[in-house]
Write a structure and sequence with these properties.
Largest sheet of chain B: none
Strand order of the largest sheet of chain A: 5-6-7-3-8-9
Mean pLDDT of chain A: 87
CATH class of the domain at 302-504 in chain B: Mainly Alpha
CATH topology of the domain at 10-76 and 147-155 and 181-238 in chain A: Rossmann fold
CATH superfamily of the domain at 302-504 in chain B: MetI-like
Low-confidence stretches of chain B: 1-50, 76-85
Helix content of chain B: over 70%
Distance between the termini of chain B: 43 Å
Number of strands of chain B: 0
Largest interface: A-B, 22 and 21 residues
Oligomer: heterodimer
Strand content of chain B: under 5%
Order of helices and strands of chain B: HHHHHHHHHHHHHHHHHHHHH
Shape of chain B: elongated
Mean pLDDT of chain B: 76
Shape of chain A: globular
CATH topology of the domain at 302-504 in chain B: MetI-like fold
Radius of gyration of chain A: 18 Å
CATH architecture of the domain at 302-504 in chain B: Orthogonal Bundle
Structural class of chain A: alpha/beta
Distance between the termini of chain A: 28 Å
Chain lengths: 244, 505
């Protein structure tokens, strides 16, 4: 089990029989899921498997979607999107503080920017940031609200490989410092294995595999013991490695 | 001692010997400066601090003061400055000449020594020489010398422009231009002096002086020379423009970059002036630029132009203010609420389909032929583009930002204030610029058809009397105001949308 087992008593997110459908096509088919508080979970799946639909359901962003089921989520939820989604007309600090006000919040925003390595860039315009920097700012924006649950929808999907590795380390560090529950949606098996303590595979609207990854951090891509998890996950996703 | 280039340092250091240096490069520079024979002579350079240093600036200033006296004396008699018979033009003319002299005197002792100072001073002298030509009471030799000196102004200005600021014209093309300038000036001055009878000169203005150097008056030769000089001057001017263009394009400074859009219009005006000077344009159809400027000055001092401008500005301002307010309010109402959209958008689209200027007869019936119908028409012309662009920007807000606002827990008011409105500002400014242009367009049409005062009325009257220069003055004023208002909007836009600047850079 993960080293923080004792914290996993109170579930942060509880789904019972969650169903969502678009135009009569069932995307989520009665999902039952508990995400314990403070757990780092990754959600894998093919494109179109309903990963994003599940995340948006938990975030409460699916207004015009038909569905049923029971959903409990914490009050303070932050979302990191695939694009940084910074408002181009607000400076970086003001973007981080979007929806907050007061002097105290400003200080928190500065601290959050320093934490993601953007100290000193408070007055920059989003257009002046690189892709990685923008995604760091987006992380700071989600952190500054001290979320109990952090939902990340392929947050590194648009970054280059080198930046992605750095961002993995940063995300893990931030999680260690703040301990929110994390649900990281990704289609990258390696990313899921390196970052998460539990990996879910979503297949045809159901959780096809629920895997706890019991390896110490920081993990390396080259860790041979992770290979076993990797094969099981790929098998669950219906992918066989020809070259293996 | 190290030789520095700031003027203050030069003045402060001039008591010491400039030819001693410690750094190798400085020595070379200083030595070159010391051995360059100048107008004043090498002694002055070798022994700074002697009164000889002051000879050149003193001579230049004396020439300036003498010119003042000449122009003053002439203005009481037959002629004033050649620029015009008006006092203001004479003042501008003299100020320009004296500024060149002063600039030359001020930079004359700059170290490292270069030609910029002497060139500027000489250009000032030749500039003022054309005033001496008109000195009717003066000795004929002074007038003749001035007549020979005056043509060199163009060549000196070309040289100055190409050699600034290093004192050397860089590149083969630039040096060829300088030489061509001097050659053209020499041919013109020499030809005029030897063969030009001033009484036969078609460019002779007001009084035609005698010519002390005249050997044999030959109107045909003088005329042919004039033609040659005119075309070569044009060629040199184009060369200069091309050169300046390349310099501007190569330069990276934001100030010089900002000047780029001015080049095209300047070229056009230059062509117009050149064609007028060459007599290629019918002055009844297209008067020369200076005629237009003179007419503007006359209308201005007569007081009719300021009144007309004020009347027109007032109409445009009222119409624009009403149109802007209406456009923005309607766009907000229809962009931010479904009820508003249902009520407003279709109506505005309908209004847009009707050409606004076609409403003029109806509005005259409703509001009378006074001011209110004009203001109403201008307001309609203005509000439509502002409404359309602002509304499109408001309703086209990125759905990803809507989602973001929800995630961040923004209230509806915060969402509108922090996301929708700033996001719609670029669209609003597009509409605003179209609206500003529209207000002038509406004004021109209204004033030329249905007015009893204002700029358009002035032009309409001028049409009846065949005064094409007055029409051009009106167009010029319209153009200037259009340009100013557009630049003002752009300036505000740049400030408000400063976050966008990083996109283009």
């Amino acid at each position: 089990m993960a080293p923080h087992t004792e914290q996993l008593t109170r579930p942060a997110v509880q789904l019972r029989g969650l169903t969502r459908s678009f135009d009569g096509r069932t995307v989520l088919d009665g999902i039952d899921l508990d995400l314990p508080a403070g757990q780092f979970t990754a959600l894998l799946g093919h494109s179109g498997s309903g990963k994003s639909t599940l995340l948006r359901a938990i975030a409460g962003l699916d207004h015009k979607v038909t569905g049923s089921g029971q959903l409990t989520a914490p009050e303070r939820v932050s979302v990191v999107f695939q694009d940084s989604r910074l408002l181009p007309w607000r400076r970086v600090l003001d973007n981080v503080l979007l929806g907050l006000d007061g002097r105290e919040a400003a200080q928190k925003g500065r601290d959050a920017l320093a934490e993601v390595g953007l100290g000193g860039r408070e007055r920059a315009w989003p257009n002046e940031l690189s892709g990685g920097e923008a995604q760091r700012a987006a992380l700071a924006r989600s952190l500054v609200r001290e979320p109990e649950l952090l939902l990340a929808d392929e947050p590194f999907g648009a970054l280059d490989a080198l930046t992605r590795i750095k961002m993995h380390a940063l995300l893990r560090e931030l999680w260690k410092a703040h301990r929110p529950s994390v649900l990281l949606v990704t289609h990258d098996v390696d990313e899921a294995i390196v970052l998460a303590d539990r990996v879910l595979v979503l297949e045809r609207g159901r959780i096809g595999l629920d895997l706890t990854i019991d390896r110490p951090h920081p993990r390396s891509y080259r860790d041979p013991l992770l290979g076993e998890y990797r094969e099981r996950l790929l098998a669950a996703l219906g992918v066989t490695e020809d070259h293996a | 001692m190290k030789v520095r280039t700031t003027p203050a340092a030069i003045i402060g250091a001039s008591t010491e010997h400039p030819c001693t240096g410690t750094v190798a490069s400085t020595v070379r520079k200083a030595q070159r400066a010391c051995h360059t024979p100048g107008v004043v002579g090498t002694t002055a350079a070798r022994h700074p601090g002697t009164p000889a240093r002051l000879v050149a600036p003193a001579l230049a200033l004396a020439a300036g003061v003498a010119s003042l006296w000449v122009v003053q004396a002439a203005s009481t008699a037959v002629v004033t400055s050649y620029a015009s018979s008006s006092r203001a033009a004479a003042v501008i003319d003299l100020t320009a000449g004296l500024s060149l002299l002063a600039a030359g005197a001020a930079t004359h002792d700059r170290r490292p020594r270069n030609r910029v100072g002497p060139l500027a001073a000489l250009a000032g002298v030749t500039w003022l020489a054309s005033d001496w030509v008109g000195w009717a009471e003066g000795p004929s030799l002074a007038r003749s010398v001035a007549m020979v000196a005056a043509p060199f102004l163009l060549a000196l200005v070309v040289h100055l422009a190409l050699a600034f600021p290093s004192g050397r014209a860089a590149g083969r093309g630039a040096r060829a231009l300088v030489v061509a300038g001097y050659a053209a000036a020499a041919v013109w001055a020499g030809g005029q002096a030897v063969a030009g009878d001033p009484f036969l000169d078609r460019y002779c203005w007001r009084n035609c002086t005698d010519n002390s150097f005249l050997i044999h008056a030959d109107a045909g030769l003088a005329g042919a020379l004039d033609q040659v000089v005119l075309w070569s001057a044009l060629a040199i001017a184009f060369g200069l423009i091309a050169f300046g263009w390349r310099r501007l394009v190569d330069a990276s400074g934001p100030g010089r970059r900002a000047m780029l859009p001015v080049i095209g219009p300047a070229l056009l005006v230059g062509l117009w002036a050149a064609a007028s000077a060459a007599g290629r344009l019918d002055p009844g159809a297209i008067p020369a630029p200076w005629t237009v400027v003179k007419t503007a000055g006359r209308l201005w001092s007569a007081g009719t132009l300021p009144t007309d401008i004020l009347t027109s500005l007032e109409r445009a301002a009222y119409g624009f203010a009403i149109g802007l307010t209406a456009g923005v309010l309607l766009a907000l109402a229809s962009g931010l609420s479904r009820v508003g959209e249902a009520l407003i958008d279709g109506t505005v689209q309908l209004n847009r389909a009707i050409p606004t200027l076609g409403l003029i007869p109806l509005f005259i019936l409703w509001l009378g032929i006074g001011e209110s119908f004009k203001i109403a028409i201008i307001a309609i012309v203005v509000y439509i583009p502002i409404y359309l662009n602002t509304h499109a920007a408001l309703s086209g807000i990125d759905s990803r930002f809507v989602e973001l606002a929800e995630v961040q827990g923004l209230s509806r008011f915060q969402f509108i204030r922090q996301i929708v409105i700033p996001g719609a500002l670029p669209g609003f400014f597009v509409g605003l610029r179209l609206g500003v242009t529209g207000s002038w367009l509406g004004l021109v049409v209204l004033e030329q058809i249905n007015a009893t005062s204002g700029l358009g009325y002035m032009m309409f009257q001028a049409q009846n009397y065949g005064q094409s220069d007055v029409i051009l003055v009106g167009l010029l004023v319209y153009g200037v105001f259009g340009l100013i208002s557009d630049s003002a909007v752009r300036l505000v836009e740049r400030r408000v949308l400063s976050w966008r600047r990083t996109l283009s850079s």
